[in-house]
UniProtKB/TrEMBL annotation:
GO terms for biological process: response to oxidative stress. Keywords: Oxidoreductase, Peroxidase. PANTHER family: GLUTATHIONE PEROXIDASE, PHOSPHOLIPID HYDROPEROXIDE GLUTATHIONE PEROXIDASE. The active site is at C37. Gene3D superfamilies: Glutaredoxin (3.40.30.10). The keyword Oxidoreductase applies. One of its GO terms (molecular function) is peroxidase activity. Belongs to the glutathione peroxidase family. Signal peptide: none annotated. This is Glutathione peroxidase.
Length: 160
């Protein structure tokens, strides 16, 4: 099991491997996403945030069907939905599980204190946010309702 976020290598929504070490030196916002959720319109907020801050922050979307079966589609359907409806260009990973026995290694790292150093907070619904700093350390967790314009969220990223 990895003890560094940057050792993890999830699959992109198109099936290619993503080496998270490529994001060293940037802050990372990890979102568990869903296409049929009340929070789904946040895709637009996160896309706008990514466009405005992509020189120093990367947003990683991880579609998951763990809450209310609100992400029933295939990777291809999810990618098309995100592009057509929200113009998403931030990196989207393949559909995973963020909870339970099938929990993806990225979410194991984000939610197990023995791996990330302090946090055991699991996602409570779709669009929970985890912030990883430039050195690969988990620094913050935010609930689903938090959007990029939230003052505490911006402070956590050092953005005004």
């Amino acid at each position: 099991m990895s003890t560094s976020f940057f050792d993890l290598k999830p699959k992109a929504i198109n099936g290619s491997t993503v080496d998270l070490s490529a994001y060293k030196g940037k802050k990372i916002v990890v979102l568990n996403t869903a296409s049929e959720c009340g929070y789904t319109p946040q895709y637009a907020d996160w896309q706008e945030f990514y466009e405005a801050n992509k020189d120093k922050v990367v947003v990683l979307g991880f579609p998951a069907n763990d809450f209310g079966a609100q992400e029933p589609g295939s990777n291809e359907a999810i990618a098309q939905f995100c592009q057509v409806n929200f113009g998403v260009t931030f990196p989207m990973m393949e559909k995973i599980s963020v909870l339970g026995e099938e929990q993806h290694p990225v979410y194991q790292w984000l939610t197990k204190k023995e791996l990330n150093g302090w946090n055991s907070q699991q996602p409570t619904w779709n669009f929970c946010k985890y912030i990883v700093d430039e050195q690969g350390r988990l620094t913050h967790f935010f609930q689903s309702s938090v959007t990029p314009d939230n003052s505490a969220f911006k402070a956590a990223l050092g953005i005004k």
